[in-house]
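[audit] Reproducing an earlier prediction to check determinism. Same input, same settings, fresh worker. If the tokens differ from the archived copy the diff job will pick it up downstream; this log only records the rerun itself.
[audit] input (69 residues):
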Amino acid sequence: MIRRNPTLIALTDNDVQDVREAVKQKTQATSAININAKDIESIEDVYRKMAEERKAKAAQTREERLGLA
């Protein structure tokens, strides 16, 4: 396969400014997600609780799970 030289695209100052604004908006959105980290921690707590319940259920005998004991 023959490779060709890349096409050069001339950028104006306005193009550069648009890219800078887009990057700035993306970083602000990312920081907003980090603010919601407390919500993520509460979700992780729910998963931890579910895992503990699964382990407790697995530790029970068959009769205990069926309510016979």
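[audit] rerun output stored. Observation attached for the diff report: The radius of gyration is 27 Å.
[audit] end
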